Prior knowledge:
Blueprint lengths: L1 H8 L3 H16 L9 H6 L2 H14 L6 H15 L4 H8 L2 E2 L2 E2 L25 E2 L2 E2 L2 H15 L3 H47 L1
Antiparallel strand pairs: 1-2, 3-4
Amino acid sequence: MSHLHSLLNQKKWQDADLETHRLLLKVSQRDHLYQLDVQTLEQIPDDILKTLDDLWSQSSEGKFGFSVQNQIYRKCLEKSGALNYSLLGEKLGWKTKEGWQVHQIPSRLSQGHFPKPPRWFNRENTIKGCFVPPLVVSLLLFVLFLILEQSSIVLGLVLLAGLLVSLLSFIIHTSNYLEGLEWMNCLVAKLEGDRQLNN
Length: 199
């Protein structure tokens, strides 16, 4: 963890974020970020997460780290009665009016912005990271139908394809959203379990 410590001391937040992901991969014996799911997080020893959290918190003077994210998570939960992952994303600076900011770093970093989740559970209407708005796909298919001017069978197929794309996008969005909630719930449980053991 010495490399992470060095990056954090130099305030190289983005590089430290990537190094944190690399360390999580190493500890969990995974090769790719997409493998860092909730089940993997549950298997990562609490002391590793605590050490990572301490490094982030100390180097950022309490601005970043899992425990800061936990505090913001709790405030969002108290405010709405149930966790709204979009609201949490906005508070942490992961989501703006333009949508989820996967790779961009805002000019002003929000409290708790780092470390980001190793997997992005918030790619609304995406398939492998490509933006696929279902309405646009449906419109393109309808235009294609108008150009072809075939029989009503083609119209039925075009509308069915548009419906399937819309349904697939909805399922992906819902799945990503729920997995993001599970990730935060698991992280909070691990942090609070560690805190209860230390009290």
